[in-house]
Amino acid sequence: MNSTDAQAWEDYWERTRRAGVVPEIGARDPALRDYWLAFFTSCAFADDGRTRLLDLGCGHGAVTALAESVARNNLRHFRITCLDVSEAAIDLVTAQHPAVAAVCASADDIPLPDAFFDHVVSQFGIEYAPLEAADEAARVLRPGGSIAFLMHLKNGAIWEECRTNRDALEGVHDSGVLPAFIRLIEEALALRQGRGTRDAFEQADRDLAPCVQAMEGVIREHGKEIGGGLVFRTYADIAHMYRKMNAFEPAEVIAWAEKVEAAMAAWRERMQSMLDAALDETALTAWRERLAAGGLTVDEPARLALGEPARDGAWILRGKKVSR
Ligand SMILES: C[S@@+](CC[C@H](N)C(=O)[O-])C[C@H]1O[C@@H](n2cnc3c(N)ncnc32)[C@H](O)[C@@H]1O
Q1: How many domains does the chain have?
Q2: Which of 7, 53, 85, 123 to mutate to test ligand 1, by most ligand atoms within 8 A of the CB atom?
Q3: Would the pLDDT of 47 be above 80?
Q4: Angstrom distance (rounded) from CA 238 to CA 180
Q5: What distance in angstroms lies between residue 63's CA and the mean position of ligand 1's atoms?
Q6: Do 283 and 257 fall within a single domain?
Q7: Mean pLDDT of 94-122
């Protein structure tokens, strides 16, 4: 993976950690939860309670949390290792799941011994890494052990949701609304301090109007919920501050606008990286072949239906390492 992608994830998880909320697009679907509950239940009953599990691209531990709950309910225990390329994600997961071992590394270079795990799992994680991650997953799996990966499906439900969000956030960026609003506030401040002119302020005001209209167009096209509601919230905040301009401290408004712009840019980047990571049948075949070359028997891939109404949303890739 390139270092820009790794940095984008680090920024995302760092921001998430500071905000204390996880706005995970698509990943809250009950079908994902049901899938993992069924998978871990089968592991918990089949194994002896000392089962080693690796969660690749663990994020804040959505899958790990489900493994722990199944183990608890069955009076079993999984020895879980969480791996993620982001240090901030690792901090989040260890804060919430103190019993897990955590490793900050890329999935294509796992600093753990051969044949160490009984199960290697991943939910929308491993496909962000290069294909060598398949070799690594096979290497760290013990003979007889299994893999279960839910992977981004190109043109599937989550993919489309990401694309719509990416397009909307790009639309807001292209509208230039935040830089135009910052300019207006700067001119208002200059005027107040006797440095600026009425003309310059009015020009900045006129320049803002088409940008706001373009933003309204994005909201009309995609709805108020787009971008997790951030687009509409930003629109409403701009309108409020515009109406009561003198009630706000200009430096604080400018700092707010710059922060929102950075948050939208980061989100846009993350949507793009999800779109890039998604697999069509050809790309999925490449993963299957690499796993098979690593000694796994890989099932025919299936598709997991997500959303309401249900639509194909993720690939299911399952396999077992051939026993010696
Ligand atoms: C879409 S999130 C999924 C997180 C989690 N599995 C979930 O379902 O909520 C993708 C995760 O993969 C991680 N990631 C991206 N590239 C990676 C790589 N090369 N190796 C390991 N993890 C990676 C990101 O930091 C992020 O936590």
Answers
A1: 2
A2: 85
A3: no
A4: 11
A5: 11
A6: no
A7: 97
Nearest to 110 by CA among 95, 99, 125: 125
Measured from CB, residues less than 6 Å from any atom of ligand 1 are: 1, 9, 24, 27, 57-59, 62-63, 84-86, 89, 106-107, 123-125, 128-129
- Average pLDDT of the segment spanning 155-160: 94
Residue 230 has pLDDT above 80, yes or no: yes
At 244 the three-state DSSP class reads coil
Q: What is the mean pLDDT of the segment spanning 238-263?
A: 93
In this structure, are 315 and 266 located in the same domain?
no
Residues 254 and 310 grouped into a single domain: no
Atom number in ligand 1 closest to CA 150:
8
- Residue 151 shares a structural domain with residue 282: yes
- Domain identity same for 168 and 131: no
Across residues 39-57, what is the average pLDDT?
87
- Full residue range of the structural domain in which residue 48 is found: 3-156+278-321
Q: Are residues 190 and 296 in the same domain?
A: no
Indicate the average pLDDT of the chain. 93
Q: Which residue has the tokens 């981004």?
A: 152
CATH code for the domain of 86: 3.40.50.150
When mean pLDDT is compared across 42-46, 108-112, 133-137, the lowest value belongs to: 42-46
| Total-model pTM | 0.90
Are 264 and 227 in contact, with CB atoms under 8 Å apart? yes
What's the rounded Cα separation, in Å, for the pair 112 and 123? 20
**Which is nearest to 239 in space by CA: 212, 260, 266, 207?**
212
Q: Which among 45, 272, 287 has a CA at the least distance from the CA of 150? A: 287
Dist. CA 300–CA 318, nearest whole Å: 8
What pLDDT score does 299 carry? 97
| HSE (side-chain half, CA atoms, 13 Å) at 294 | 29
